[in-house]
Amino acid sequence: MPISADEYIRQQDEMIEQMKLHIQSQDARILEQEQTIAQLQALVDEMSFLKAGLEETLEELKRQLFGTKSEKTKTAPADAAGETENPAPKTKVKEHTRTKKKKITRDERYADIPIRDVIIPVPDMDRLCPYCNAQMELLGYKEVRTELRITPAKVERVRYMQEELICPECRKDGDGTIVQAKTPAPLMAHSPASPSTVAYIMFDKSFVSIPYYRQEACMDQLGLELPRETMANWYIKCGLEYFQPVYDRLHELLLQREIIHADETTCQVLREKGKAADSISYMWLYLSGSDGQPPIVLCEYQAGRSGDFPKAFLDGFSGIVQCDGYSGYNKVEDVILAVCSAHCRRKFYEALPAERQKQLKLLDINSETEVKDIPLPDSEQMKKMSPAEIGLRFFNKLFFIEKGLKGMDPELRKEKRLEKETPVWEKFWAWIETLKPLGGSKLEKAVNYSINHRETLQSYMLDGRCELSNNAAERRAKSYAIGRKNSLFHTSVAGAEASALVYSMIETAKANKLNVFQYLYILLLYMPDHKDNPAAVETLLPWSDFIKEHCTGQIDVETITPENRPQLPL
User: Fold this and answer.
1) What is the pTM of this model?
2) Which residue has the higher pLDDT, 450 or 407?
3) What is the per-residue pLDDT across 490-519, written as a single tens digit (0 to 9) for each?
4) Distance CA 542, CA 513 (A)
5) 169 part of a folded domain
6) Is residue 354, in this structure, part of any structural domain at all?
């Protein structure tokens, strides 16, 4: 039967309500799906970030485990099984020119080596003329050849025999007046150690990087049984007692400079109070900058990497500290930090794929290779380059400019930097702001490193004596790192502190172009008598006229001896 209008309207309203409920249910389902999609997208992004990070880590581990080592030789083409059938693709190498060094003659190369003429006489049976039997006369000597002869180290026992005089007249009266010769002070009381022996041990240990156990074997070949424990004791005692006064004076002079480079490298000390044997300690390095004054290089051992250590060492210094981006240097007071651009450039380089790294080079300011100008990429070129490669290009451009400014007067160098390098930095920062690197990637680390050190990366432009990089300090740290690789660890804190003193003397001597062994020997020769005399310490600094006279030639331990040494010009 037909329904009423009211009933029809009621049914329609119910249908509308049901449709509304259905639509709301659908909306809720769609919203739930959208939330699920968003969560999945976030998970995908997170997994992408993780994947990128893991791939970078894997590539780095592959490089460390399977990368080419300097000791490996290249495989000849015939040695590889499939190389002849499937030759490797060829890579075109960019052309470059290298400044040809002036060729020197043998006489110029060996000019400082002493000459000993060996006369080869004609035998007596041939000194008569074969035709008339007359006695032959000397015509002269003809040089046949010159050869190099090396006499290996030799060991001898030196006994100091003290002369004693007695008055014969006093002796008649039963009162003998005796006068004794004054003997040189021993290097170590009741010990056979001598300046030459300890200098030899120090030289081998910290310059040639020969561990004590290898030195022990070498000493045995010389006929000397010298245990490694004895050598270590001599090294430590003489280093701490005789080098500390010179080190302290060099430290005072370093703090008076206006530019200091700083760096640190790891080491290990087995017996250190409050620390496990396998814990990490640090050797800190501080050296003078390119200020035209005699160079100073100092090492300092510390148990950690806290910024309190450079703060204490540089207390009283007011100038520019060139360093890496380590935040600990922020604790140093009253200084301007100049962060190394080579460190920043390296982070962009590490963000490149391994194959691309092989095709690109990091420009070295000191390289003799002539490099063509490095133009900055325009917007179109940037589209074809990876961000890491673009960042590397900016820094290589800066290093190219610096290469051209090398050796300039500091004021002119500063002026040229402001003119040529300021636009490069401005373009670099403008480009950095456009980047949105993948989270956790090496590119993000490079970008963040740049932004976090924006001001200090450009501090070098404040002074023409500053350098764009802190490579000078890193090169000095490398000397210690080579020795650390061979010796592995220091047994005691005293050994680490003595090593810091010995390395300081060696590196400062190298920087002042001295004969390193001879400088160690001269210090050990004079310091037992003069370690408490400030005037003597001043005379024994690496740039004094006395040291330059006696330590710039060949090793001499035969004419300059404890009993026959020149007087210090005090």
Assistant:
1) 0.80
2) 450
3) 999 999 999 999 999 999 999 999 999 999
4) 9
5) no
6) yes
Query: Concatenated DSSP letters for 517-538?
Result: HHHHHHHHHHHHHHTT-HHHHH
Kindly list the distances between the CA atom of residue 128 and the CA atoms of 120, 131, 140, in Å, as whole numbers in the listed order: 17, 9, 16
Q: Is position 48 within any domain?
A: no
- Hey, what are 436's tokens? 């949105």
Distance between CA atoms of residues 181 and 164, nearest Å? 7
* Per-chain mean pLDDT for the chain: 86
Residue 167 has a pLDDT of: 87
Over the Cα atoms of the chain, what is R_g? 36
* Overall residue count recorded for the chain in this entry: 570
Q: How far apart are CA 166 and CA 163, in angstroms?
A: 10
The model's pLDDT over 5-59, given as tens digits with 9 standing for 90+, comes to: 777 777 777 888 888 888 888 878 888 888 888 888 777 766 765 666 666 666 6
Q: What's the domain count of the chain?
A: 1
Does some domain include residue 144? no
Containing structural domain, residue 427: 345-467
- For residue 91, give Cα distances in angstroms to 105, 355, 356, 384: 38, 12, 12, 19
Helices (H) and strands (E) in the chain, counts: 21, 11
Transcribe 88-153 into DSSP letters.
PPP-PPPP-EEPPPPP--HHHHTTTS-------PPPGGGSB-TTT-PBP-----------------
Positions of E strands within 259-335 = 259-267, 269-271, 281-288, 297-302, 320-323
Q: Give ∠ CA 523-527-530 in degrees, rounded to 5.
A: 140
Q: Find, among 449, 447, 453, 452, the residue nearest to 433 by Cα.
A: 447
Which residue shows structure tokens 């509308």?
A: 16
Compute the Cα dihedral for 485, 487, 491, 492 and give only its sign. negative
